[in-house]
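Supplementary Methods. Inverse-folding protocol.

Structures were first reduced to a discrete structure-token string of length 125. This string, shown here, constituted the complete conditioning input.
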């Protein structure tokens, strides 16, 4: 079992860099950044999948808030509210479920989903 990293300036800079990459990708590509934050945390800080998922979800909130100010004229608030309602329910269910799935299986699920979405974007942009 991997040990969680200890706090320090170097680790703080790694997380800051991961956040910067996720923020730029979120603002530029319209993604929450979690598709980068989770694997980067696991690779660079050696946290477990569940901790990376949890940290990523917490970090996405301010990323989204920051980007919405730029995108405000283009935001359909009705659809955004519906997306939020569904996402809150889905995030709760997914977080509860993730604690019941073995870590390796969760890693494989994430890899498959990212791979399928990547292939979809290549084939049908």
């Amino acid at each position: 079992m991997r040990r969680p990293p200890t706090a320090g300036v170097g680790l703080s800079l790694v997380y800051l860099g991961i956040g910067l990459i996720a923020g730029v990708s979120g603002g530029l590509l319209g993604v929450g950044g979690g598709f980068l934050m989770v694997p980067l945390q696991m690779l660079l800080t050696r946290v477990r999948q569940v901790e990376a998922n949890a940290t990523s979800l917490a970090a996405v909130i301010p990323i989204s808030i920051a980007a919405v100010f730029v995108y405000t004229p283009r935001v359909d608030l009705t659809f955004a509210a519906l997306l939020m309602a569904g996402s809150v329910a889905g995030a709760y269910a997914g977080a509860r479920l993730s604690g019941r799935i073995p870590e390796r299986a969760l890693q494989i699920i994430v890899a498959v989903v990212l791979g399928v979405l990547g292939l979809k974007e290549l084939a049908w942009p």
